[in-house]
Amino acid sequence: MNPTSRYPGVLGGGLLAACLALSGCGGGDDGPDAVATPAPTPTPPISDAAGRKALVIDLDGPSYAALQDALAQGRATGLDGLQIAPAWTGGRSGTLTEQPTTGRPSWASLLTGQWSWRHGVNWEQGSATLQAPTVFSALRQAATESRSGAASTQALYVDLLRPDVDAGALDTLADCSAEAQAIDCVTRQAGDMVAQGYDLTVAQLSAPGAPAQAIATLATAVTRLRTQLDDRLATHPKESWLVLVTTGYGADRYGSATGTQAVDSKTTFIASNATLGALGTDPAAPQTPDALYARAAITDIAPTVLRHLAVPVDSSAYAFEGQALQASLALRAATAQAGADKASLALSWQIEGTPAEALRLLRDGQEIAVLPPETRSYLDDALPAAQDGRHAYRYTLVSGDAVMSWPARIDFVTPMPLATTLTNGLRSYYSFDGATPVDATGLSTLVPWDASADGGSALPADNFLGRWTSPAWRLDTTVVGADGVAGYRLRQNAGDITDNTQFTVGFWFRSNGLCARSLSNGVPIFSNKNWHSGGNPGITIGLWNGCELRFNLGGSGRIDNSGHALTDNQWAYLALVVDRSARTFTSYVFDPVKGQQIKSLAFSAALGNFVPGLGTGFSLAEDGTGSYITKENNAGSPRGQMDFNELALWNRVLTEQELVSIYRAGRPLHTLQP
């Protein structure tokens, strides 16, 4: 044992006993025949001093299941009378916080209240030093006259604390790793610290042997430490002591520490001599990761100790990825996921209990939102990233007396704004945000071909990114009216869009499972022609086998922009541009998987005359007659559901850059309108 101490301790009882046994110590005049009278055992003085103190005991090895079994059989009496609940370690699987479920990384988490991405200890071996401040340094900073000590059976655990000794944050550090009876050494050293009234004592205990034998040995050591604490309280009855007992990792069914993210390896326990509201009282071992994350974690221990020791916490500088378990609410399962736009973070959390006041959310110490008590998620789409690249943030949630922090990381891509020119020449615009489709320009109507056909229905989620999410629109062509008519008719009030020399049509589209069916005759998506033949006058955008999109212009001949790839069940942006002056027919598909696709064909002046088609406007989810799918072939032209959003018509040619901005910005056009 190699103890390092800044405080030499108190005078032992050996010298006093020896002195009492010698006549010279008494200074009396008794003769040689005098009978020595034993001195009465002095009654220890009762101290009137109050104070808050803590004893943390880390047991290396026992799984929660093994502990439950030992308690049931009376082999873990040292933990009797404590509030015991399952807890977890190893960070959150698949996230920035994940770390091995082994002893040394968990010991570092106990000391710092952080996961390894912050404290820097990822392995059992190696020369890694703690990169985050410990509970000892936090206590010393807040109370310069406090005394702290630690004792451990493991040299690699002790090494992590030597910098705290050098910095003056830790008064006593006992290395018992070389002792033949290392566990007795730790119990003795830590017991002395308790007896001397150290403000914070941390004891790390390891025991060899089979799980049952090890637990019995460890429980005996805990009993000895608690007895030492009882002796201290007998002479210092006004002191308030918090005792926490925990373990750093779980074990598989064979009693082995695997280091993996398996639930049994992640499951630990926390026991307390005080009732801790956020620890919980349910003894059932969680069976799934989500159930486990709803429990306390090893990172909760440091803030719990510091709250008991009355160390003030500034939420704007909260430094722990756990929470103080004395809180009336339990903040759990906090996550941060990068948004599809790569420019936002979707945050979520759970709260056990009912918050009585608004929640405060901070990013890197700065308050970004005050939220209603029932809020369990937030979209942060105002990240302060100055350029593309990897960025890390720390979020803090405050709910009453409960505070929790968690990390986030994002490979940030600067969002593209909508081109402000998109309002120029806009002749019809349907956002589909209402109960029925309404043209925001007031220049057209969009209604079902037949009142008894499907009238469409709003969808709760659409193609937009971040906070711009709003309803989309679904048309179900399996619900038909008279003579099999389905779909919608778009009629413009002051002349058809095709009367213009130039025009653009664009909308978001999702095929919603149609690609899994035979589309040998094609399914119309947007059309103003009788599509009985591709050569009939007019325009059609149709879906074919293999999730292929074809843009067709016909009439005494035809041209086809074929071969566009669409991903089934994914939102894509489709656009058609007709320029009679340049005699070009251009199609655009922006697909999240297949990417950006552009095709342009020239057409003759004669073919250009057939652009208006039937002259009765366009149809959605049907051709210009509303009855193509019924009249052609039910097997080759199956009916189904099609989803639409942001249907817009312009009386000019939109540039590629403008269309790219629609797709990349991920926000609706109405955000450009005053």
UniProtKB/TrEMBL annotation:
The protein's name: Probable nucleotide pyrophosphatase homolog
Organism: Orrella dioscoreae
Highest taxon of source: Bacteria
Matches recorded under InterPro entries: Alkaline_phosphatase_core_sf, ConA-like_dom_sf
